[in-house]
Design goal:
Blueprint: H1 2-22, H2 33-40, H3 42-53, H4 56-63, H5 68-71, H6 73-95, H7 98-114, H8 116-122, H9 125-152, H10 159-167, H11 170-185, H12 194-203, H13 206-243, H14 258-267, H15 269-290, H16 292-302, H17 307-335, H18 341-361, H19 364-378, H20 381-389, H21 397-410, H22 413-423, E1 427-428, E2 431-432, H23 433-436, H24 439-455
Antiparallel strand pairs: 1-2
Helix pairs in contact: 3-11, 6-7, 6-9, 6-21, 7-9, 7-13, 8-9, 8-13, 9-10, 9-21, 10-17, 10-20, 11-13, 11-17, 12-13, 15-20, 15-21, 15-22, 15-24, 16-17, 16-19, 17-19, 18-19, 18-20, 18-24
């Protein structure tokens, strides 16, 4: 009887082992599902903010008669909030909770959106820059909270897959942001060209200045309205999260040990290189999605379209790029079940290098197709670099997440450099300044490919 019982127990143990092998750890355990969905709602919210803003570099340059480099201050102010608030957000979350971080982030987000009301009334660039900055202080809290919160909602071995799944919904917001930018901003701006606006400003007569002021006021109101709408949506999401009991997956801490945490993170080679790779990825993303408007406008004007028609068509290609990005994110999330994240990152970075080179070398619409092809390769990069860099950081992941979010603001200096090249309006060995400027994202993908290769030694096989 005893022998039978022992054998039975062995059989049960063997069956349990077989079940563990047969059924891998769940990506999102049932106990976290509702909370996972609510937190995932925040991902398209910041995707919307990012990608309704990218086309505004060109729009503000036109409306306020600025150069491409001056217009890039939209990006610097927008992403500056990430740099300013990433570490304060991490400290806040470490002391309180991920939920508190989400709520404060949504509050800043809504406040920044509503600041577009006085900014449009002032008809000046600086108030808009301040509104962007406040908004992205909120986005910094959101991303610093949501990304590690998603990582913590289940088994460690499926953490990267879980983050990629949540991040897969980010492009849906980005796609909506691009659609709104095209249909409700770019197409509704006054059709007066850059040259015509500058002529009115140069005229200096009262009637010319009044005409220019009316055009500017109308255009700034067009830019303002979509931000007011998203501000209302953000308030609604904030109220839902405020009243929902969310799981506590971290311990509150009054002993922050900031010095010790930074020392450990700085000593972590995989993490250090991940921050650098993230900075170059963000730079590449902003450049490819912002200056597709400049690239496409140049292509389509050369094909005989008017400036406004060319800008609208270029923005439609931006939407196609985001559709490809979105679909590729889901495909790549599936592939992560079978391929080491570092290896897949390396392969996609190599693809990004190929398409960027084609963007520079090919003429006309062929170059545009190559430019939108880059988005298929970028789809996996942000969450995968994020997940790889935080591998093995333990509770240091909260401040570690701040470093990866701060990398976003580091990436803004690359688009400024690209804008400076575009403003030269020169021909470089047969290539226009716009085409030549895409050598910068090409170099970014080289850095990312190297990190993908080097990171494989830090990941489980």
């Amino acid at each position: 009887m005893t022998e039978y019982t022992m054998n039975t127990n062995k059989d049960k143990s063997t069956m349990q082992e077989l079940k563990v092998k047969e059924f891998p750890a769940s990506i999102v355990p049932q106990a976290y599902l509702v909370s996972f969905i609510l937190v995932t709602l925040c991902f398209p919210l910041w995707g919307f903010a990012n990608d309704i803003t990218n086309p505004l570099v060109k729009a503000f340059s036109k409306v306020l008669q600025m150069s491409a480099a001056e217009g890039t201050w939209v990006q610097i102010a927008f992403y500056g909030g990430y740099g300013a608030m990433a570490i304060p957000a991490a400290l806040f979350i470490k002391k309180f909770s991920y939920k508190a971080g989400l709520m404060l982030g949504l509050t800043f987000y809504a406040l920044g959106a509503f600041l577009f009301i006085p900014a449009a009334g002032a008809q000046a660039f600086a108030p808009f820059l301040f509104a962007f900055f406040v908004m992205t202080c909120g986005l910094s809290f959101l991303e610093t909270s949501a990304n590690p919160y998603i990582l913590s909602m289940g088994p460690k071995e499926t953490a990267t897959q879980r983050l990629n799944l949540a991040q897969a919904f980010n492009p849906l917001g980005s796609l909506l942001g691009m659609f709104v930018a095209t249909q409700f901003i770019i197409q509704k701006l006054n059709p007066a060209t850059d040259a015509e606006r500058r002529e009115l400003a140069a005229d200096g007569s009262q009637s010319a200045l009044e005409q220019l002021s009316a055009i500017t006021a109308n255009d700034l109101a067009v830019i303002r309205d979509p931000y007011l709408a998203i501000g209302v949506v953000v308030i609604f999401v904030l109220l839902i999260i405020a009243f929902k009991k969310m799981p506590v997956t971290e311990e509150k801490s009054t002993d922050l040990d900031i010095k010790g945490t930074f020392k450990r993170l700085f000593a972590n080679q995989n993490y250090r290189e991940g921050v650098i790779a993230q900075m170059f990825y963000v730079g590449a993303q902003i450049m490819c999605w912002t200056y597709i408007i400049h690239y496409g406008t140049e292509v389509f004007v050369n094909m005989g379209l008017t400036e406004q028609a060319a800008e609208t068509k270029a923005q439609m290609f931006n939407i196609y790029a985001m559709v490809i990005f979105c679909l590729s994110r889901f495909v790549c999330t599936f592939l992560l079940k079978f391929i080491n994240p570092g290896k897949l990152l390396m392969v996609l970075a190599a693809g990004g290098m190929f398409f960027t080179a084609a963007t520079i070398l090919l003429d006309g619409v062929a170059g545009m197709y190559a430019l939108i092809g880059i988005s298929a390769c970028m789809s996996l990069m942000f969450p995968t670099i994020y997940g790889i860099a935080l591998t093995g950081t333990g509770d240091d992941a909260k401040l570690g997440a701040a470093g990866l979010i701060m990398a976003i603001v580091g990436g803004t200096f690359l688009p400024y450099a690209q804008a400076s090249i575009i403003d030269m309006k020169m021909v470089f060995d047969g290539f226009s300044a716009t085409k030549a400027s895409f050598v910068l994202p090409l170099l970014c993908f080289v850095v990312i490919a190297i990190y993908g290769k080097r990171s494989q030694q830090h990941l489980p096989k």
